[in-house]
Structures are given as structure tokens and as C-alpha cells.
Design goal:
two-stranded antiparallel sheet; 2 strands; mainly alpha
């Protein structure tokens, strides 16, 4: 019993020392050299907004179905709160300007980009999920 325990402790100590001495390799991720990833250039990554408004719920849902939960929401109040949070996040004066700032269009493609190739015949795409195997086929040109 003593010898088995001593062997176990030796092996465990050697393994822990080996793990401590090995250098960890950095993950190969697409991260900018500046160290921060700018998600939206018009909005700081450190900016956070929140809203607590109990009046958005007209009543308490009787069950956890989508229908009963959606029926309990005051949509006008919800929309007003969402617009106020968007204006605060984007630091804009109107909701329309704020939403345009948050959901911006991607930059235009470079002029030297590869030209698109036209396919001679349509191809189909199949989408499968792990829960239920179903296929959605559509023609793409």
C-alpha cells in the first residue's frame, strides 16, 4: 500500500512539473495586431446600455408559450425603449440615425476583387441540422 501511494505521488509530481515547464502555444485566431477588435467604428466597444421598465409587460404571462408571452408585451412601450437605448448607444439625436449607425452597410468591394463567375447550370444547396435532418434545396446562379 505504501509503495503504491509513493509511486502515485512520484508520477503525479512529475506530471505536474512537466505541465508547468511546457510552454503554452498561443491560439491562432484572426485578431488585429492592435490587441482590440473594432466591431463598429462609430461606437466604442466599452459602451453599454440597459433598460429596466416593468411597464413593458401589460400582464403576467399565464404560460411559457410564445403566444402568451407575446400577448403580454406592450409593443409601443417596447419600441420606445429600444429606440431610446439605440440613441444612447450610438449617441445620436434621432432613432433613425441611431439605427443607421448601429446597422451600417458593409464597405464596398475593392475594384481589384475577383470577378464573379457565372455558372452554366444551377446548383442546389442542402441544409441539414443535427436535431432533425431536413433538406432545403434551392437553385443558385
Amino acid at each position: 500500500m505504501k509503495k503504491e501511494r509513493r509511486d502515485f505521488l512520484k508520477i503525479t509530481t512529475a506530471g505536474a512539473a512537466g505541465l508547468a515547464l511546457t510552454r503554452s502555444t498561443p491560439a491562432l485566431a484572426a485578431w488585429p495586431s492592435s490587441g482590440t477588435m473594432e466591431i463598429n467604428p462609430a461606437i466604442s466597444n466599452m459602451r453599454v446600455v440597459a433598460c429596466v421598465d416593468t411597464a413593458m409587460m401589460k400582464s403576467v404571462p399565464t404560460s411559457m408559450t410564445f403566444e402568451t408571452q407575446n400577448a403580454a408585451v406592450d409593443y409601443a412601450r417596447l419600441q420606445a425603449n429600444m429606440d431610446a437605448m439605440a440613441m444612447s448607444l450610438a449617441q445620436k439625436g434621432t432613432a433613425d440615425e441611431a439605427w443607421k449607425t448601429i446597422f451600417r452597410l458593409p464597405p464596398p468591394a475593392r475594384s481589384g476583387a475577383r470577378p464573379s463567375r457565372k455558372r452554366s447550370r444551377p446548383r442546389s444547396r442542402t441544409i441539414t441540422t443535427s436535431k432533425n435532418l431536413w433538406a432545403c434545396t434551392r437553385s443558385c446562379s
